[in-house]
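# nightly structure sweep
# worker-07 picked up a monomer target from the shared queue
# config: single-sequence mode, recycle default, output format = structure tokens
# input follows
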Amino acid sequence: MLPSPPDASVAIAVDRDLAQAVLAGRPGAFERLVRDYQRLCWHIIERMVRQPDDTRELCQEAFLRIHQSLHQYRGDSALKSWIAQVAYSVAARHLERRRIPLAEAIDGDGLALAEGIGDGLDLESAIANEEVRGLLHAAIARLPPLQRTVLTLYHLEEMSLGEIARVTGLPEGTLKSHLFRSRKRLREILEPRLGVTP
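# output follows
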């Protein structure tokens, strides 16, 4: 993993201050936390459950849990990662209650191939193209919940594999394999629609 940028410690100090303000009950502090992180919670939960009504309810549950357990945030990593972990946990429990599998089994071919993660499918360029964006989001929706979420955290939230490992509790090697398989599936879905040659 790349070394943290010099301002990472400043950002974590800001996160600690916000957490302390919420815990101290300062006016507007929790509202600020919700405002800063509601998009992150929505992305994670929506990618996992794919039901708008459930997503709204689970986001509320996630922020209630964040408020109740914020004292557990130690301030040794980004608040974003800690909040993402709570949102992921809430959504994963929801899927478990509904007996919806979180991921497909990963066979042995994934880990060796996943080392480079990239596979020729440029997701960033695809997202920049308005016409392709709709196709891409529809293709992502067809992936299992865990793969949708890992893609979202890695590409849209720009989290490192280490941060995603903390959020999901999965080893980095497993995450690489999920990313590789997800991108491969997206490529298979999108190639016929976009006229991309393998």
